[in-house]
Amino acid sequence: MQQRETIIVLDFGGQYNQLIARRVRECGVYCEIYSYRTPLETIRAKNPRGIILTGGPNSVYDPASATCTADLFAMGVPVLGICYGSQLMMHLLGGRVERAPEREYGKTEVYVDTESLLFQEVNPTTICWMSHNDYISQAAPGFKVIAHTDHCPVAAVEAPDKGLYAVQFHPEVLHTQQGSLMLSNFVYKVCGCAGDWKMDSFVEQSIQNIRAKVGNGKVLCALSGGVDSSVAAVMLAKAVGRQLTCVFVDHGLLRKDEGDQVEAVFGPEGPYDLNFIRVNAQQRFYDKLAGQDDPETKRKIIGEEFIRVFEEEAKKIGRVDYLVQGTIYPDVVESGLGGESAVIKSHHNVGGLPDYVDFKEIIEPLRDLFKDEVRAAGRELGLPEALVARQPFPGPGLAVRIIGAVTPEKVRMVQEADAIFREEMANFGLANAASQYFAALTNMRSVGVMGDERTYDYAVALRAVSTSDFMTAESVQLPWELLGKVTSRIVNEVPHVNRVLYDCTGKPPATIEFE
Question: Which is catalytic among the residues 5, 104, 158, 172?
């Protein structure tokens, strides 16, 4: 297989490491994240077309700060330093970095030299996102200043003969108006990339590679119905067909009719020729969850029970050669296996695999992809748009959208309320107006009046948020007419609900889910 052209992002602990990689991939160039601790020989062996140094929380003149060898800049590979990365480049190559007399934070007017390859077709005065306490007070020898602000005399520098560029701002964030153009200029005009990262060729090549690896082997896939596992399953189905068995554990905590929708796509009446097993384990999960009101306890019960059910089905199948997982690139990075950022969360798909399935190897066909790329792969594979565009849904399902203990009755209540909310969002032409929206069942009961009778019933909370990365989010201002219609329908159509609330809180301080 021909090696794809690659840009490497060296992570110095910046919060935008994944965002940089995503922006580069949006330019049509493959990109991977590595820790700044990665040995130079390893980087060289990757044969990168270019290297990008991320931001970071430290000061380069602090002896304990993240650093790299100056030999990195003599490899003959173009390097772009961003924020801390720009300061580090200057510091290591003989420039001066010190505490800025005035901190810059937020949207800032930057005056750029449009003769530079980095700023070709960029407006001479452009808005960029600044976030720094230190600044470059003197560029390193051999570097030319190519951008400045009213408070920052060295906002960008270049040594084009060496392919070295550095910017004090963050081109990867959306607040930098022409940041994508700057990154495109770097990967194409500086690094000379051709742009061979295309989803159609990735899908085709992946299917060929899977087919060659599996041969006549048997493959097992745990199918949740989510985007990642569904795309992975279809890719395997196209590669090996009936050699694949998909086990779909329906824990009774999915949205209304979702289990049937998954079966319609992957079951015997669907378009894919594979072995599909649906395990209807709803009551089993409800029994395990009875009386449990702590969110973490509920999560653990569901995760462990899912493994037990999957284990039982796997034993019925017997020996399999390969286990398929829908691991995606953020799972890898956030589990501390790529980049430098602290472990954000442990992922069931990365590390710590259960030992109950007898298999010899794991296949993770989406391991290199970000979520938007997984959706693009799904479209290439011909999955229904409703499944490909599916909003994020928590692994524990509706258990974390029901505050307090879970009962079958509460599940039905939140399913019905959620279905009404979704239906009316579509009726009002707002199905795509929010990144994620849903109904949750609070544990609050209050007095109400329905049909001249006193009620003492539950309150449903509606939530709709807008976000680009799900790390931060804003509440969406939905039309009052829509909220009124949804409220009326929920209190009239869903038993034991007499009040509807709308959550106006952003993330932070709240999280997107309720538990």
Answer: 172
